[in-house]
Amino acid sequence: MSELSYGGELLTRTLAGTSDDPGPLTHMTVIGSRSAEVTEWPDWVHPAVRDAFVERGVRRPWRHQTEAASLAASSRHVCVCTGTASGKSLAYQLPVLTTFADDHNSTALYLSPTKALGTDQLRSVAQLIAGRPEFAHLQPCSYDGDTDSELRQWARMHSRWIFTNPDMLQIGITSTHPRWRAFFAKLRYIVVDECHHYRGVFGSHTALVLQRTLRIARKYGADPVVIGASATVSNPAQALSRLIGEDVVAVTEDASPHGERTVAMWEPGFLDEVTGENDAPVRRSAGSEAARLLADFVIEGARTLCFVRSRRGVEVTAVRARQILADAAPDLVDRVAAYRAGYLADDRRRLEQAISDGELLGVATTNALELGVDISGLDAVVVAGYPGTVASFWQQAGRAGRRGEGSIVVMIARDDPLDTYLVHHPEALLERAVEATVTDPTNPFVLGPHMLCAATEFPLTEEEVAAFSAGEVVAELTAAGKLKRRKAGWYAAPGLDPHGDIDIRGGIGGQVLIVDATTSRLLGTVDTARAMTSVYPGAVYLHQGESFVVDELDLDDGLALTHPEEPDWTTSAREVSDVTIIETHDRRTFGPLTVASVSVEVTNQVVGYLRKALSGEILDSVPLDLPEHTLTTRAVMYTLTQEAMIDAGIALDKFPGALHAAEHAAIGMLGLVATCDRWDIGGLSTAMHPGTGLPTVFVYDGFPGGAGFADRGYEAFTDWISATDEAVSSCGCTSGCPSCVQSPKCGNGNEPLDKEHAIKLLRLIGRLQR
């Protein structure tokens, strides 16, 4: 059987079980195979390192591996940016291990955004150097949240190569750097794996942690080289350069081989006799479709990975797939499992081994298995919902076809404007250049806490403050008494311990503890702002496969009390917002249309929540009385004159519904031009905003100071709105649904919404910009 027929026939057999007309498949294409380009081993590679790789089956390296490794060995910061399964690990292992073989006192630091990836890379290195006397001194070791205190102490004293993540680097290493003095003094390399993952607020925090780490190492006399490894992103050198604040060279020509791959786009059909909010039609869920595909592929003997957006979705998809198999192929039930973050370390290791060994044929997972865990020989990948970026889609798709054989990738659309747009405009995904990562380390809400950390590590000099672009922030901290100016620089005020106050994953405000009140067990934590949208009274909260319902949220004491319960519904918060314009940074005017980049103050209040059956049907709406929350952030804003809207056929009484529907659709589509999804952003529309005196729409970042998403929307406004118009216009519903203008988090119950006049509004904006 040819490679193409393998993917095509596998999908044909799966489609045989559907009865939709015209069917769920909207597009199918084939990506051709690619041959390898190899080179000889560079002369500078230590013979013991070369022999170790040859014994592991790497007879000669691929060209991009040699190029990146040689740049790092010559003391250049480098980012190797090639596809999944292209051997990026070898590119950093060559120079690091050669240095260790030549200098037994040198050290290295490896960073990954997930524990699973760090553990996998540590295992790979341990296997590579096993039994080789040249590396007996190395003792590579994990240093993360799963590492017990005794092993952490041992690692600090004896390991030459530490595998960790930005969170632990912040809280457990830079905060106690005097204990790590010997390690920092000999630090030769810092490896930043999957560096495309560091975007938005998380990326901005990680950038400052990395820059402070380089500062500490240099204070102790070292000058480490940074090696970045990334999936394909736009401007990889610039992306890593923003993270470390220094010049970087990129290696982007992928010389690895790959088998032929079939890519299919899949749109679930509408459910019969089920309606959602305001009687809108409801599609079959992406999770249900994914579960069926996962089960069908496993029955066909295809090793399959199914990516699902949420932890809950992963659990539900795995359960449904197992239920299907229980009826159709009972002997395969135990060969399907779920994998996600939040599991205990031993459970994760066991699952990773079962996946790698082929004991499991099908696995539903979050992006925990997107980021680099070495899983080979997969025949199929199912992507249940667009993962938010083109880079992430190709990273997930790249898990298929590692044996050089034919493979299949299926992307299933969620009931969401962007997903619906992409399955009907596949070129916007399959032929589009990958995004540039968006970070802003100068965001004062991010920068200020890191300057406090830096000042507790070593006094801040004027040159360093200038290098961090932190003059204004440092002045404010000094005025507040948190920094003290002395002759040698700025010192942290006595008694401050700022490292633990930073949530580098983007938390806002203090922490709320989530507790099972029946056992007093701590389930997890969430920052204060997000607590009001995730653990409000009545919310369904999932933890490691267990379901809880929240009984009480006490923000004063930082507690959310829950009890175990498995209801057959889900919950989603409803918010209302008010937006005040603080400052206008830039604007463009097109006659009656003005588009602006602004700083705003957003006042949010959760006013209730929806209970939704697992089928998607709305059960009821429950009111809540929670306090307001204020957020200072960045927004993209547009205004139109009343006259222009009326001339376009939008009557005055249609303004609210048209603006509201256009706002919802634009929020859903922003991910097409920015590395975000709708849960990272918010919006407001009004027929007459007091700050502008005009019909106005805001789309804003959901993070203090902004995360760069709204700024990107401003830059790409024309393309963004054009795609929004196309998404709404081409949706098959008559008056609006979650695939076009309805929002799952609308505080007004998705009222008023006017799809017809939203299309007129979006087309008016398009015409005015031509």
TrEMBL record:
Keywords: ATP-binding, Helicase, Hydrolase, Nucleotide-binding. PROSITE patterns: HELICASE_ATP_BIND_1, HELICASE_CTER. Residues 69-251 form the Helicase ATP-binding domain. One of its GO terms (molecular function) is nucleic acid binding. InterPro entries: DEAD/DEAH_box_helicase_dom, Helicase_ATP-bd, Helicase_C-like, Helicase_put_actinobac, HRQ1_WHD, MZB, P-loop_NTPase. GO terms for biological process: interstrand cross-link repair; nucleotide-excision repair. This is DEAD/DEAH box helicase domain-containing protein. SUPFAM superfamilies: P-loop containing nucleoside triphosphate hydrolases. It comes from the Bacteria. CDD domains: DEXHc_Hrq1-like (cd17923), SF2_C_Hrq (cd18797). Coiled coil: none annotated. Residues 293-445 form the Helicase C-terminal domain. The keyword ATP-binding applies.
